[in-house]
Amino acid sequence: MNKILLHIPHFATKVPKFFWKDVCVKKEIINQFINDITDTDTNKLFGANKYEKIQFGFSRVFCDVEKFADDSVETMSKFGMGVVYNKTNHGVQFRQVNEDYKQYILDNYYYPYHNQLDAKVQNMLNDENKVIIIDCHSFSKDIIMFDKKKNNLPDICIGFNGTMDKLSKLAVDYFSKLGYNVKTNYPYDGSIIPNSILKKPNKNILSVMLEINKEIYLYNKDRLKKLKNEINEFLKFIEKNKFD
Question: What is the pTM of this model?
Answer without folding.
Answer: 0.95
